[in-house]
Amino acid sequence: YDAAKVDLQRNKQLYQDDLIAKSQYDPIVTKADVTFAQVKQARSNLDLLQVQLSDVKIFAPIKGILSAKLVEPGELVSSGTALFTILDYKKPWVKIYLPLKEVERITLNQKAYVKLDVSGTKFYGRVSFISDEAEFTPKDFLSKEERVKQVFAVKIELNNRDGLLKAGLPVDVWVEEK
Question: Is the pTM of this model over 0.70?
């Protein structure tokens, strides 16, 4: 922008003093006009982006602890894109995988507990989800031996009032009999 402005002023003076021809001066004027228009458009775009940015609100749907950053500063994201992973320390859960024989004996809201490997501390909870379909299913024909490999995901929500239970701790899980 500044270079185009200086170039235009210098050549305007040369043209007015009849030191350059109109055919030399006109392309310089055109180039300067294009440059000025591009700068004006860029400023308009910047103003619009600043207005849009002032309307942006980033919020977390729950209180919790940030456990992972999913995007980098300057990265373009659209509305609704997750920026972080948040651990809900008040509602921890554990996911277990059970074969069909065992999952048939479990119902939603059934009592369960986990025991920490290190301290042996127990945390009580309930079954909050039972998958409707098996995972790790072979794609081909299923023999009786292969059917044993099918498992169902079961999610158990735990009580963590004291905040002692942390994500990633190894635990043993028990689901109480009906």
Answer: no
